Amino acid sequence: MVSFSFKLTYLLTALTGLTTANAHYGDEQPIASRKPVDPVTIKLPSGFSATVVAEDLGAARHIVVSKTGDIYIKLAKLKDGKGIIRLRDTNNDGTPDQRTSFGDYPGTGIFLKNGYLYTSSNSSIYRYKLNDKEEVINPEQPEKLVSGLRVKERDQSKSIAVDNQNNIYVNIASDNDACREPGTGKGMMPCPLLDSAAGIWKFKANVADQKFSDGSRYATGLKNVVGLDWNTKTNSLFVMQHGRGQFHDFYPQYYTPDQSAKLPAETMYEVHQGDNAGWPYTYYDHIQKKQFLAPEYGGDGKKTGDPSYIKPTAAFPAHLGPNGLLFYTGTAFPEKYRNGAFVAFHSQSAELKKGYFVAFVPFKNGKPSGNWEIFADNFAGTDLAKPTGPVQHRPCGLAQGPDGSLYVTDDMNGTLFRISYNGAARPTKTATSSTKK
After folding, report:
1. Distant-in-sequence, close-in-space partners of 213: CB < 8 Å, separation ≥ 6
2. Residue 222, domain extent
3. How many Å apart are CA 398 and CA 395, to the nearest integer?
4. d(CA 170, CA 146)
5. pLDDT of 422-433, one tens digit each?
């Protein structure tokens, strides 16, 4: 893949005298000017460029963009008492100049569909009615669709997607890496967590006050799915699973430290009603391209897993932390990107000695049509093989703008990036990103 690096140089100008665009919101704030500090270098394919859209957003997780260009971002932690940020470009210069926040709950999930903005906390799902410009009508009065979702100390995020039949899908993660018995390396058989976690649950997207018991388990055997998207071409749900770890920690007789650092794969699945991806009983090895029996359940690194479990659609190196998935439906990017999948990776791989990037998987006829590749690299701002400083940005959420551009959130320093295609013969647009120490 041909790529080039360019330096982001960015300066937002203070704007004053803005009028309130939507009387239902609270005080709307202009985005203040900032002095650029420590510019980050992003690597992109030839013809692409990136700009920084906004900064200091907080723990910016998943994101959607309305048909008129309003940007809604879900925050994992409250910022100024609010958990959703809306950015708006009031003067049509391509850069948001107004920031509004609403919603008094943190979380990860956000989805735009059927005239509603759907959002999630770590235990509930909400929706907001939109007007014909896809603006939230009553931002402080959401309708609660679902409550009582499982929340434990780790992997709490409830990522969501909505289909075309008014169904909403939510990830409920396992809080136990391999469903081990406490204090041992032995797996619980059968794994009791599968009744309420480690899978995708389905609820109605247009019915209020549903409890966990009102939903149905759509797919199981998925340890933690932070990135998911409804593919409108295949009319099906695709998910990105975080793999388990600690092979060498509990089973040094079977796995070396190097194997433990490189296994298992981070996996993409296309899931349908009743599917089982095999966690915690099996794992996928992307190097050997096989599914193996987990050591907690009698595996030794050589025994293959149950063939009835669904196979990955695509597989990636271990421990990259896939947090965002987006199927690109625009026409602004070159033909190879159309209907393909972008994946935002939130961590780093010992195998690649790289991380914190956005990957791309080409698709044709609803299936991967080639190898995955790194699309946007070096959000970390440092060489991960020989670090010269701290990581600067962690890609998390992905969204497509009405003009076909790609938005990428960063939940470490709260920076929002926009990637656009200008054509190989056109000059690169630049903007600067300041980062926190």
Report:
1. none
2. 3-104+213-421
3. 8
4. 10
5. 984 333 333 333
